[in-house]
Amino acid sequence: MSLLRVENISKSFKTLQVLRDVSLEVNPGERHVIIGPNGAGKTTLFHCITNILPIDSGAVYLDGKEISKLPAHHLAHLGMSRTFQKNNLFGDLTVEENIHLALAAKKPYRYDIFSPLISRTDIRKETNDILEQWEISNRRHVKVKHLSYGEQRLLEVLLAMASNPKILLLDEPTSGMSPAETAQTSEMIQKLPRSVALVVVEHDMDVVFAIADRITVLHHGEVILSGSPDEVRNNEVVKEIYFGGGAKKHA
Amino acid sequence: MKKLLLGVVLLIALVFAMPLVLSDFGINLATEIYIMAIFAMSLGLIMGYAGMVSLGHAGFFGIGAYTVAVIGQHVANTYLLLLLSVVISGLIALVTGAVFIRTSKFYFLMITLAFGQLLYVLFWQLKPWTGGADGMSVSAILNFGFGEIVSPNGFYYVMGIAFIIFYILLRLFVESPAGKITKGIMENEARMSALGYNVRVYKLLAYTLSGALAGLAGALYAYFNVFVSPDLSGWMFSGQVMVMVIIGGVGTLLGPALGASVFIYLQNFMSTYTERWPMVMGALLVALVLAGKGGLIHWLQHGKSLFVARKRTGEAVSQQPVKKGEAVH
């Protein structure tokens, strides 16, 4: 059974229809990349899946359970995690404190108002594990706003991974990165454990083909193709959209 | 934790040393400052740690004050009256907050302003109970079981100790998981929601705690002032406490307390020279906002860090670089 099933969702902003009957299936552990030209509706699709925007019609299922009506903060507890296109971290907090906040979301003591958060041994230990696993222990006390852009994007992924999600949605993980940082990030994404399924919006084709098991092409808010990397690479319509100048409307 | 302990010891020393140098007038002034400091810290909590700027916070102060004044006519027990003030103002904060936190920024400002004014009018209109615009005197007398407290010195110590206790409680809150999470929500609500936090619960929690504490400050004030009037809930007073928070420093706990001291001191000091003291206060506020963002407490911290940095670099020649734990805060 598929882990995430998106069924015919549509979304309009006033008169502008951004998503039209979009359907999508993601299996456990799959690397699913969504591509499409600017304005295709990729980020809107993410916002709709994670309930940051309400959908007009259709439904989203996670593990067979409909999630499209649930409040956004429930999704993390059901195993869905996401990053944001723009850096969306806590700039005035240190790397370590950012991780604390990500970890505490699943702790029973998250409503505790008396004992200091840093006195919790489990959270300190898990934070250390994460810092070591990602080899950033030496940056732990640095305020996030003082990190390099690439490091911030890494932390973004790492925070989303902190809750041990079943599925992780990455919104343009390499946007704004230098070629070296892009390569690093691509490598990091490939190293993520197969216990988590990935849905990635990405523009860089090298990254797309490096990580994808399956690719969905979105254009003008519609899915025009969903298939293996080879199918997508050799598809005429996709070539048309990406390389044909876009004068001709797709069939 | 060590820092907190040191801070508390310093505060206790301050509270107990002040009577040695202060005149009777000074003692009275300091007592009022402690009460206003508790009030300012309560507003500072939601302004600086939850991003909610309320222009009706005096409403809760008024609720606490009138609780002692009205119910105190029938109930003598100080503990019970203080508890009632906290519970009533906390409950009202919980119920109204559940609606208010759905708004943000300017709308929150406006709806809290309306709330404060509503209470102001209510205290004014309920003349049979509250004495209306004339206000009412407070018959309840402060008594913690060690005899009635009526002397200025007695009041001074009670309010000083209350200030320290609530400073400790607030400090514990801002270091607690709920406090840290609330701060995170203030910085980035969408992200905290995506991480799995129910942001409204935390906002409401902070608002309720803040309202309850403001009510307690009002109750203490009723005992101290032995007179309450609708002005305690008016928008002027809400504005004044906001000025205290801003002068002292948003985003800290001691900042608002410091702001309250400066405000009350200047208010009393300048009003002996001119009736137009709010003009001077206004000019000071403008200067503070223009000259340094963050208020007086940040200047103090800046001065301290300059001093510490100089000491550190001096030591660094002979010693190891900064130890692991020291860079945390």
UniProtKB/TrEMBL annotation, chain A:
Location of the ABC transporter domain: 4-245
Matching SMART domains: AAA (SM00382)
InterPro entries named among the record's database cross-references: AAA+_ATPase, ABC_AA/LPS_Transport, ABC_transporter-like_ATP-bd, ABC_transporter-like_CS, BCA_ABC_TP_C, P-loop_NTPase
Residue stretches spanning the membrane: none
UniProt keyword list: ATP-binding, Nucleotide-binding, Transport
GO MF assignments: ATP binding
Keyword Transmembrane helix found: no
Xref: SUPFAM superfamilies: P-loop containing nucleoside triphosphate hydrolases (SSF52540)
Entry protein name: ABC transporter ATP-binding protein
Organism: Geobacillus jurassicus
Taxonomic lineage: Bacteria, Bacillati, Bacillota, Bacilli, Bacillales
Automatic annotation (TrEMBL), chain B:
Residues annotated as signal peptide: none
Pfam families: BPD_transp_2 (PF02653)
Lipid bilayer topology: Multi-pass membrane protein
Broad class of where this protein is predominantly found: membrane
Localisation: Cell membrane
Segments crossing the lipid bilayer: 33-51, 58-76, 82-101, 106-126, 154-174, 201-224, 244-266, 278-300
InterPro entries named among the record's database cross-references: ABC_transp_permease, LivM-like
Keywords (A to Z) from UniProt: Cell membrane, Membrane, Transmembrane, Transmembrane helix
Domain of life: Bacteria
Source organism (scientific name): Geobacillus jurassicus
CDD domains: TM_PBP1_LivM_like
Protein's name according to its UniProt entry: Branched-chain amino acid ABC transporter permease
